[in-house]
Amino acid sequence: QRLQHDPAARQPLAYMRLRRAIRNVIENGEVQVGHALPSERDLARALTLSRVTVRKAIGGLVEDGLLTQRHGAGTFVSERIVKPLSRMTSFTEDLRARGLNPRSEFFERGIGEVTPEEAMAMNLSPGTQVVRLHRLRYAGDEPLAIERSAVPLDLLPDPSLVVDSLYEALDKLGNRPLRALQRLRAVVLGPAQTRLLRLGAGSAGLNIERRSFLDDGRIVEFTCSWYRGDIYDFVAELQSD
Ligand code: GLP
């Protein structure tokens, strides 16, 4: 009983505890983006842990995209936002995990009928009502992405439930998507987009389309995003057949 309430007991492995601890330090902004972590050996000595433990904890955070290893130079808090493609996370979660402050400016947050493109993408009949969001997404004062989302009204009955994060609102309703299909394309951003993202004319971006689903296969969202090409890295682990 007592052990169940002890967080240390629920994370029995030293490397998992260390991984969590380093993550906390980054999330709290105690080590800043681009800065180096002490060497494996120094960390192991200071924390009286084995080097294997330290290496495993750091390896996990490199996989999460939070740390970057540069050969011969050491381990740094990632400067670019490195996003593992296989994880189903939200913009808000990705930024918070890096100690950044996610914010949205809404251009649209209302109810409307699906557009033909949305109806086709979501396999909904024309005339279906959706919540439509059009947001400029920031880390603090810096704009990072433009996102347009459509969510069927039966899964999100009121647009004002989305205070900032769409997934937080869906989570509260028990409708957080569990899996998604995503397409990434390189694009040259248009004039309106570069203006919003404060980039030079003709800058490159990543266009991401995500279709997310509930466990029972119902579609939750169709989101079309334009991410800045100069700071986002999407990484994936590959396996041979
Ligand atoms: C990412 C995805 C979107 C998703 C969004 C939710 O940006 N590409 O498809 O809608 O996360 O993020 P949030 O919960 O912060 O609104």
Compact overview of the structure:
With 241 residues, this protein is an alpha+beta fold. It has helices at residues 7-10, 14-27, 40-47, 51-63, 91-96, 116-122, 166-172, 191-196, and strands at residues 67-70, 74-77, 81-84, 102-113, 129-139, 142-152, 179-188, 204-213, 219-228, 232-235.
Give a verbal description of the structure.
There is one protein chain. Helices cover 27% and strands 33% of the residues. It is of the alpha+beta class. It folds into two domains: 75 residues, Winged helix-like DNA-binding domain superfamily/Winged helix DNA-binding domain (Arc Repressor Mutant, subunit A, Orthogonal Bundle), CATH 1.10.10.10; 155 residues, Chorismate lyase-like (Chorismate lyase), CATH 3.40.1410.10. Strands 4-5-6-9-8-7 form a six-stranded antiparallel β-sheet. Strands 1-2 form a two-stranded antiparallel ribbon. Strand 5 and strand 6 form a beta hairpin. Helix 2 crosses helix 4 and helix 3 packs across helix 4. The radius of gyration is 20 Å and the shape is globular. Bound molecules: 2-amino-2-deoxy-6-O-phosphono-alpha-D-glucopyranose (GLP).
Set down the secondary structure blueprint.
Elements: H1 7-10, H2 14-27, H3 40-47, H4 51-63, E1 67-70, E2 74-77, E3 81-84, H5 91-96, E4 102-113, H6 116-122, E5 129-139, E6 142-152, H7 166-172, E7 179-188, H8 191-196, E8 204-213, E9 219-228, E10 232-235
2-amino-2-deoxy-6-O-phosphono-alpha-D-glucopyranose is lined by residues 90-92, 147, 149, 165-168, 208, 210, 221, 223, 225.
